[in-house]
């Protein structure tokens, strides 16, 4: 069975090196040819058998690949190469737990193999084995302490393991090894300093984080990120005056960044997410009057005060704000103001204001709150109607909403946005089929617009007209391959909507297929992070990398995944309750056995 040490003669040993080279350069046919040359003389050489199997795996010949690798292990179980290759096969099949076992077996035979240790660390972070990841990265650092990536990766491992102090000490120790930073590496070094400040902030060492930013201010290239972190840290340490100054500097750079406005408001002693006192309101009002003088063209500076102003102050501010939207015909006005509807008083002011506008514009050609003599364009009237239609629909008055949108369409039938809003109103009023017809009418007015096509498709699906939806969305997919094209584009909104439509029509098999496709997309997204484990270390995008890892940990809380999972459960229940579900006129999807399925909830996906 096991032949012990299998040492090849020099000629075949060089040929074996060629196999590895051909594999790395994706010259698989040449690799197979070279392997066959060795196996002709040494048919039981385990490492060559394993490499041939690995090469076959890349040629989509998985069964043969596993056969050759297992034969290689059979003849040479003491070869770390065979175990490493076996792990690579499992990794390609996304069976990471088995791959880790193979790598560990390989390391028992060659404990200091850098390549195997690196591959193991990638699988450990992918599987979130944080303790194992930290141990492996420490071993790599000890073996090769002159490699920057080993220091950084070990710090990340400790950071993710919540060992903040140790992570910070590792980065400081690495800084101590630097004699100088070359110009070509200034960006990477600056990113490391920002990452160190991030670790200190998360550990609660806020003053240390501020000190790190101050010391590295002349070395950090991403000045904006440093300034944002500084403002946040000053705020958390209670230095509101300093934080206010920083956020005012940031607003000079971008007065429409809402995060900066939130920071400024907090620095002024208010919590943007809670009720404010009259004194706080007066402080904010004065602050935004000052900001308006500095940035008169900023939309954010005009819009944000609408959140905290009340009564006549709110009315005057909102009248000034909406005028430009109406005059320029900006369709997103209602979407912009919809968050104000949590206040009934503000919603009432808006309703009265727009009703007065609709009443006065036809006769005076002026907005009632504008004192100038300039006459408004006729389009202002129709955009006021458009706003009112959405306003009444939001407040549940479907009849009034339809009256307003019909009046707008009658006035100017060429504005496509009107048809989309009418479709929404009809759908919420309980007539999804009429909504789909109206949306399709709007789509036909601009056949080159993908958004309109998607909207019409959505409403056809809401009306359970799946064939019409397929015909519509097919206009923007590759000819003859609609299903695969949508799947490749990870078009989850369509798959969820179509799946729900099939559920409503009790076509459980088709629904199941669509919901499983969504689950596959999320599996792919989770798999896609694999390449970033090494890439982000090389590029030193450390803060973004940590955010990516944390996002991936909550990936399955995404609404599309939740909707698909819920749909899968309903589809399985439907199939169980109705063992033979006819799909269309000919096909029967699946017959389930009379016993209840024994699959665990996790296996549904």
Automatic annotation (TrEMBL):
GO terms for cellular component: cytoplasm. TPR repeats lie at residues 80-113, 224-257. SUPFAM superfamilies: TPR-like. Pfam families: NatA_aux_su, TPR_2. Gene3D superfamilies: 1.25.40.1010, 1.25.40.1040. Keywords: Repeat, TPR repeat. This is N-alpha-acetyltransferase 16, NatA auxiliary subunit. It comes from Cymbomonas tetramitiformis.
